[in-house]
# Entry
Amino acid sequence: MPNGLLLLMLTGLGLSGGSLLAFAGAPTETEALRLIIRGTARSSLILFLLAFVAGPLHSLWPSAASAALLKLRRWFGLSFALSHLTHAVVLVALATRDPALFWSLTNPANVVTGGIAYGFILLMAATSFDAARRWAIWPGLHRIGLWYLWISFVVAFGKRVPANPPYSIALVLLLVALGLRITAYRRKRAAIFAPR
# Structure
């Protein structure tokens, strides 16, 4: 079995197992849904960051490990899509089960911006396969989608920092990932425009 497919399957098993543990351990169904929402937000962030930095890491520090990470980039992206779509399904379940709680935790603007993010996730996942790479929109779609999702994560985790400082760890990881991408981009441009 290819490593990428194994990664996707392990992500699915992890999401299923985590959800079962949440329902088994939480005192109420609503609390179980909230645990799964928090868990999938974190798993999605990790998988997104692995896809986000795979190229820059290999560009800056080529090695067997960075090459392996780069080879799995598409699968990290698909695993992220699976994790975050699970997050969306559970959000809808919470909205259905306890609408008052759901709307106390979010607002219509967040639903719209989140909906745009999910649109990008679905399009990026659909165009991650070789046959779809022939679409002319593919390179721009992934680039725009990556940055939109990065900003979405910064906003989503950043607004929680004042009430819950450990969320700053997520912000630090996102900023480090940004730094890696900028550094790799600048090095690539410097190499292109260097005098021959």
